[in-house]
Amino acid sequence: MHHTTYVETVETRKPARETDKPAYSRLIILARVALWGFIVCAVIGLIWGIYYGIGQLFYSNNPHFTIEQINIRIEQGIVTEDFVRRHLELTEGEMNLYESEPTELRQRLLEIPLIQEADVRRIMPGTLQLTIYGRTPVACLVKRTGRLIDGNGVVFVPPEGTPPTKLPIIAGIADLDSYATGEKLTHAGAMAALEFLRQARGHPKGNYLDVHIVQVHKDQLRVYLQPNAASMIQANAVVTLPQENLEKSFQRLFYILDEHIGNSEPVTRIDLSYDRVPVNP
């Protein structure tokens, strides 16, 4: 008996390649972000362009806002109006009020060692107002001809053409050459000399002292005085005092001067570096 064998053939198909869904999703997200970024940049550019155009049309290029008047008010110091005008290159009738920002002009002013503080304002339609607080010199520095110093210890030079002023001289500072114009002194002796001058100016009897030179010498100050008939101080009189505790030294100094005024006794030397004060007539 013959048997027939049937073999069933099963066709095996490879599954279709699935799309890489995570990578595709990232591409969609990046495309959307790029599109929105472009839209945002376009909108910002449009707004800025409109703003700039309006500013140019109605402000910067508008002859109505041409600077017709520049008011420069010097509140203190030796800086001059002409010096400020030349430094900022300001001229009426040529500049627009909106060409320069007040903050920018103020910063340019503060870069000048002569100027301590400044205020800049626009006043519609065509006035620029500058208020200047310059540095006031309290002494000159003997090692640098023409260099002055204010009460805070800042070194500066006067404007050209400024008449010389009679100021005390601070001498004896060894490293003075290392200080640039506009820099603040940190020398302990120099700061003590400035403090002496400050207390002398503010003392009720400060008019007794006509200071010529304050010499810094180690831990002392040697103060050379001009003659003063009211206080019996003679020409080239010198007062020596420690740099520390100046207030106490001032009390002793004016007590001695009052004694000599009362006795009509001239003074050429007072040494306050000792507890018992030597006084030479």
Notes on the protein architecture:
- The structure is a single chain.
- The chain has about 280 residues and is α/β, with parallel strands linked by helices.
- It has two domains: about 65-135, Roll (Ubiquitin-like (UB roll)), CATH 3.10.20; about 135-280, Rossmann fold (3-Layer(aba) Sandwich), CATH 3.40.50.
- It has five helices and twelve strands.
- It has helices at about 20-60, 80-90, 100-110, 190-200, 245-265, and strands at about 70-75, 115-125, 125-135, 135-140, 150, 155, 170, 210-215, 220-225, 235-240, 265-270, 280.
- It has a nine-stranded mixed β-sheet with strand order 6-5-4-7-8-9-10-11-12, with helices on one face.
- A hairpin with a 7-residue loop joins strand 9 and strand 10 (about 235-240).
- The protein is elongated and about 105 Å long.
- The N and C termini lie far apart (about 160 Å).
- Mean pLDDT is about 85; it is low at about 55-60.
- CATH architectural category of the largest domain: 3-Layer(aba) Sandwich
| Overall pLDDT confidence | 83
Strand order within the widest beta sheet: 6-5-4-7-8-9-10-11-12
Shape: elongated
Q: Order of SSEs, N→C?
A: HEHHEEEEEEHEEEHEE
For the termini, the CA-CA separation is 162 Å
Sequence stretches where pLDDT stays below 50 over 5 or more residues = 55-59
User: What is the CATH third-level topology name of the largest domain?
Assistant: Rossmann fold
The first-level CATH class name of the largest domain:
Alpha Beta
Structural class comes to alpha/beta
**Rg (C-alpha, Å):** 39 Å
CATH superfamily of the largest domain: Cell division protein FtsQ/DivIB
The fraction of residues assigned to DSSP E strands is: 15-25%
- How many separate domains make up the residues? 2
Strand count, sense and barrel status of the largest sheet are: 9 strands, mixed
Number of helices: 5
Task: Give the fraction of residues assigned to helices.
Answer: 25-40%
- Tally the beta strands: 12
